[in-house]
Backbone:
């Protein structure tokens, strides 16, 4: 006979008390594996509770596997293998795993838009979307992005970059890394990727993360060096023809044609055109994208709103040649839409109503001023041994070539000690090259004049 | 002498007209590679325009690489390799690449929440967040997710699943697929994954997409078969102990302990606990998660708000053991936050204010009714040769075992012809097993009674 005393607490069903009491007895070994439990009726009578209460407790124990029921024979305690004591693996307490760096001035990353984000307009548009849409905001939606947004992006690309594509070829994703992960899946295992050196380090990092083969290829004044690209054996090349990061090179038309010819001559060759800051060209007309001349479908175009709207708006896109689109759909049939529908609608409306281009004009002007101001402050400073300054005509960074013997590591260390965070050109090289030593890379967007002035003063002190 | 006539259109700068005229001549070969252009002054005089206009046009041509300038010597037409005519690769016109299927009734996927989404509350919260926050909405943010949301998720997991973890171990991502892609990166190349058969097909699909090695392991009434798991050589296993999809099995406590012991006995072993519909248990108490008993840090817990809030809210999360967190940070340093900050704040508030649990209670009740209704309709139908029905006590699907010789392919085909989309259990098997033939899997969430009734009637007709 099993007799339990119940606390009969308010809010706790009686069956739950019984379930817990039985479970405790099983776990403590007081009820042993194979032992038969009293019948529902006997248990009910012994404890002065209803048969239903017993049934509910037994059901829960069966669901969790503590007891089994055997028709006609009754209920039995199950065999439960206890957890063996495990040597607690040492788990150091690390405190907060992620800390935002605190610098007096951070030239290493662009704090895009913290000060210039068009809050009023953005909030107005989000509120509009909230009022106008219901079901559309929660539907699973097209896994490649909402038609409304893709249509607006296609129209924008035509207006601003001379690219004429079907909205169907525009694929939306939660960030360039996300799209990259999908993209590299389309190509066979023996694919070799080429990246520029110096270049944007995130790209080879992503290739490494996916265990892909990549080669680095040097640069000259016209862009990526073609003979080196050809001898590298790579068949997919990642470039930013509009504005190389961090060299600032604009790929010459001659080199563009060479590159397109290279890609057109083999059906396994592709160019990934990373148009990351094409929107920020100040002193000359915007140069048409490589993609705009891609008659043979060899160019994959990528861009993002994270750099023009906000890093918190996770909407990036790529434009695939039509034959790759087919392959993309086959390869990603199990992937779902990765970005918020609300924000996709909001960005679509931003583009449709011209708010986005108005915003671009405003920040383009602002960044141009910030760049000019930074260059002026650098030129005024008498202690920094400046050989030459490049940049200011586009983008949101300048490179400062120095007449110094101080190593780049020492330069970074001393400036960090002064609260100034910066990179050197050599940080962007995937192979050492003395031509790129002694060059500071300064990202300037969204830094106010006071901070710039003091940061440059502090930089002067370290020499 | 080069003389051009200008249209002098309003809004088009004169330098642009000159630039275009020169570019056209270069591209057409009328100005040949190496040819010297007139000096700025000569060009200005010949065309009766200012020297500045000529300078701007020449600058643009230099930027784009059409001409080069050589100090003291002048401006020269650059060598431009023309694009060779490329045989147009056949690109079939495919029309719209993505079509949403139109079925009279779709039992294949759960149309989670289209009818039950708490619009009023969701919109209210989004509006609140918009009023209260500015800068926080556009900052780059913690790449692992906003602290506010991770704190609320940790609290929710404690309340609802008995899981006690530091908010730091909760990683936010844009969908389970996204998190999976990050997760598999943490493990060495020789890792072997185990999936249940039958089971959720998306998981082996993802492994295939990343070229990972995986084995399938069979099921019994207690859950995944341990001897088979052990002999498979796998060291990471993906399971849904709370509610197997599509079998509906609840892993027994005995099996849970066996599985934990298996993982605890080797430091390369991990369990991925996919708790995809733990929120929908109707007829018994919620069973504590495997993760809640994970004293040795071998369990990776995954869940998503896409199934409980909306598939358009792309917020999923995983809970990592602390030692993996460290590795995660090293491996993903170049990944940025993948989800909308606005929606992260909104979900955090939903959790904090209890709106989420209120919403869960409401849809739990609703889904229970929908399940009961479907089972009743199936039982009433005299033409479907039903052997048994499983489900209805949790989740949003039932399985219907049939007494028929009709093949599953034929069954699917005939039901599709009747406008009814469904899967069979055999569709979820990664190896053939006749035990799982002749079983329909019906996902029922958010289908109204009329549709259910007519769909079941149509199903009856096909036998």
Residues:
């Amino acid at each position: 006979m099993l007799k339990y005393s119940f606390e009969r607490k308010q809010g706790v069903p009686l069956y739950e008390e019984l379930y817990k009491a039985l479970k405790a007895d099983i776990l403590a070994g007081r009820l042993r594996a194979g032992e038969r439990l009293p019948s529902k009726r006997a248990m009910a009578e012994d404890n002065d509770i209803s048969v239903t209460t017993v049934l509910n407790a037994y059901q829960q124990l069966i669901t969790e596997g503590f007891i089994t029921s055997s028709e006609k024979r009754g209920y039995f305690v199950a065999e439960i293998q206890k957890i063996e004591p495990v040597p607690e693996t040492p788990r150091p307490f690390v405190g907060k795993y992620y800390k935002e760096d605190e610098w007096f001035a951070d030239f290493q990353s662009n704090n895009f838009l913290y000060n210039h984000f068009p809050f009023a307009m953005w909030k107005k548009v989000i509120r509009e979307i909230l009022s106008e849409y219901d079901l559309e905001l929660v539907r699973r939606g097209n896994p490649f992005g909402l038609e409304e947004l893709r249509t607006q992006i296609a129209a924008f690309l035509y207006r601003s970059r001379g690219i004429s594509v079907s909205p169907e070829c525009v694929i939306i994703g939660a960030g360039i890394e996300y799209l990259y992960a999908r993209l590299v899946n389309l190509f066979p295992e023996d694919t070799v990727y080429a990246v520029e050196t110096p270049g944007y380090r995130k790209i080879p990092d992503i290739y490494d993360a996916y265990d892909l083969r990549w080669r680095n290829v040097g640069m000259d004044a016209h862009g990526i060096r073609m003979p080196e690209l050809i001898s590298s054996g790579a068949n997919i090349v990642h470039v930013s023809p509009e504005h190389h990061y961090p060299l600032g090179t604009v790929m010459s038309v001659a080199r563009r044609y060479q590159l397109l010819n290279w890609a057109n001559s083999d059906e396994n060759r592709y160019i990934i055109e990373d148009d990351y800051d094409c929107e920020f060209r100040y002193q000359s007309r915007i140069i048409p994208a490589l993609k705009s001349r891609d008659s043979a479908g060899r160019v994959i175009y990528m861009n993002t709103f994270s750099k023009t709207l906000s890093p918190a708006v996770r909407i990036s896109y790529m434009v695939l040649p039509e034959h790759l689109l087919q392959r993309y759909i086959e390869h990603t049939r199990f992937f779902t839409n990765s970005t918020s529908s609300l924000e996709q609608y909001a960005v679509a409306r931003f583009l449709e109503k011209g708010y986005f281009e108005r915003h671009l004009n405003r920040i383009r002007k602002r960044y141009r001023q910030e760049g000019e101001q930074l260059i002026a402050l650098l030129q005024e400073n008498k202690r920094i041994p400046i050989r030459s300054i490049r940049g200011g005509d586009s983008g949101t960074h300048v490179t400062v070539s120095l007449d110094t013997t101080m190593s780049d590591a020492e330069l970074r260390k001393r400036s960090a000690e002064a609260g100034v965070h910066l990179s050197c050109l050599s940080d962007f090289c995937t192979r050492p090259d003395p031509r790129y030593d002694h060059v500071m890379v300064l990202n300037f967007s969204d830094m106010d004049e006071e901070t710039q002035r003091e940061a440059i003063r502090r930089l002067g002190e370290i020499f």
